[in-house]
Design brief:
Structural class: mainly alpha
Order of helices and strands: HHHHHHH
Helix content: over 70%
Distance between the termini: 62 Å
Strand content: under 5%
Amino acid sequence: MAHDSYLLMISQSFDEILPEEDQEVLFDHMRSCAMCAATWTRMNALDRVLSAQIEVMPPLDFTASVMMRVSTYQERRKWYPWMVATLIVLSLLAGISLLAPTLFFSLGLYRTAATWPAVGRAVAAVAVGFADLVRVASFLMDALLDWLSLLSHDPVTLGVVVAALVSVSTYIGLRETLKATSTSEAFSQQSA
């Protein structure tokens, strides 16, 4: 507990709020107390580290990276109005596709439309098209389930698929590394 006042004085000294006469008392005490002197030394080292101005150099390709991001942003910005317009049109179409049948059946318009021959042919064509679509979707779903069943029951097939995925991943990684290496070499040659 006796050293607490000296530790407070050390802290105040580094904060430059310790009066001059207390500063001399502290230095006299540190000449005879190894623990306080060690604390002073550690805090002095920490103070130097914290007050040092660290120079951080940006990466060599910093400018090229920023300019690439700017151009990517500008490219995306060109498509933004088109994406918004597309989303608005799709939202309107979705609203109409929900509202039209509701009104058609709730207002009883289906009774009148059922008497027209063109409507009967259109409904038949839509039904045939929908049946074909269901058949194709069922075929694709069955094929997917057969594939997954084969993978889960045949370890050789699973090993071949995993090996192929690892090979493709390795190829893509090597290609990207080569691309990054050639870009950094070109940049270092430009800056030299």
